[in-house]
Amino acid sequence: MKNHCINFFSSLSFLENKMSLTLNFHLKSSRNGSCQPYVYGSAPELGGGDITKAIPLQSVTGPYFFATSIQITKPTNGEFSWYSYFVKPKLGSEVFEQVSKRFITTTDSSTELDLYDTFDINNSIGELILHFRIRCFTQYGQELYICGNIPELGNWDINKSKQMYFENNLDYWSCIVRLPLTTSTQQIEYKYIRAYDKNNAE
Questions:
Q1: Which pLDDT tens digit goes with each residue over 7-50?
Q2: Which residue numbers delimit the CBM20 domain (predicted)?
Q3: What is the dihedral of CA 190, 77, 119, 135, to 10 degrees?
Q4: Alpha-carbon distance 70 to 113, whole Å?
């Protein structure tokens, strides 16, 4: 009986480890000095979307100036967990990111994830960041995609279109597309696709 109890608790501990995920946030920001950066997100451990429950990041040495580690319950299949940053100066109100929310992607075997991000640093990664956001009403089970005339948007191939994410706020959908910087002029064309799957679009 004693051996069974030991095995039971060992199995329970293993199960808890598989269901938890440690997030290591690393942030590089041009707003250092007197500004305190925070991270918050949809997970309860990140405040459940409430900025008053956001987690402060600590100053560290290295190329990324701020960091913190948080353990959350791992998102299950079909669930999206988002996070975002803001900074709070000593005087004045919070300054939020000008890009859409970031999403956490994991695998079944993931137990720890390092997230390297930048805040308010122009062209810090040599890319142009496009933020698409639209209000669109959908039927239950429908998704929203964006397709366009550049490789990052599928070159008008609907099977390569980019999926957008539901913000759970008045039917808004959004996504981020990163483009390499170039000195040439480029005209970007795109359209939104509402579909149950990419083969059944409207």
A1: 434 443 433 445 888 999 999 887 666 689 999 999 999 999 99
A2: 15-121, 122-202
A3: 40
A4: 10
Count CA atoms closer than 13 A to 64's CA, side-chain side.
16
- pTM exceeds 0.70 for this model: no
Q: Are residues 26 and 101 in the same domain?
A: yes
Euclidean distance between CA atoms 195 and 201, whole angstroms: 4
Q: Which domain holds residue 170?
A: 127-197
Task: Give me the helices (H) in the chain, please.
Answer: 2-19
Distance CA 32, CA 95 (A): 12
On whether both 102 and 141 belong to a single domain, the answer is no
Instruction: Quote the pLDDT of residue 92.
Output: 66
Whether 49 and 110 map to the same domain: the answer is: yes
Which range has the worst mean pLDDT, 25-29, 50-54, 195-199?
A: 195-199
Q: Count of CB atoms within 10 A of residue 149's CB? A: 14
